[in-house]
């Protein structure tokens, strides 16, 4: 994905501030993912591997609790539930797994004659693991600290639509500049094909979204005219699925524009302010999941407190 004017503005502001800031993170490289090997014998399968699935998989959260996945019949009856996020594709059921690894950091000059010893360095590795075979898709590989004195990288699945996982990466780094810096990256991963999808490029009516976001951002500006410069127009940085109480799909769009460090709102990368607006239309490839099946509606009627993160159908390849 080409570098955007927003990313360039952020990097320039970071240099001006004296902060050795890490720019907004780029999308990770999709690795070749082999087709899963032949299933293991029943003797070698664990209880979880051998557990029956369902026609529909729905995952979500209740309150601030961790995500859980429900396996349902076509009619919406619960077969079983399990912790975590699992999505179904034509290749089987894939579990989202995140692990933390240590990252080697560097000492740095904090001031005249002052050296700061290497600080904490952690990063997330994110994978999808195929139930029954253990085949893996490496979605996000931990990166090195790139000279940072402190670095904390996290990856989170913020939603899914069928086999598509919407993933946000957030990285805090400090290289002994004036202050630390938060960089954010966004990607959509196709679990069926094991590859990144540039879904932002498929969003329609972007100028209209920019206009709505700009109006919202201007409401809190002391000098809206100065903030509304052409080179500082809000850029589309993320879209996310949102499901209503019946399970119908809605899509929101986040747009961000550059701002001074103290002016940033913390909702996206440092040196930005952002606004979330409803997308005019979901990208065409998501159309098959726009309307929930009747079984999912029945299930949600019995679980009104569930905040749906996503749903998928077993055996379906797109």
UniProtKB/TrEMBL annotation:
<feature type="region of interest" description="Disordered">
    <location>
        <begin position="31"/>
        <end position="51"/>
    </location>
</feature>
<protein>
    <recommendedName>
        <fullName>Secreted protein</fullName>
    </recommendedName>
</protein>
<keyword id="KW-0732">Signal</keyword>
<feature type="signal peptide">
    <location>
        <begin position="1"/>
        <end position="26"/>
    </location>
</feature>
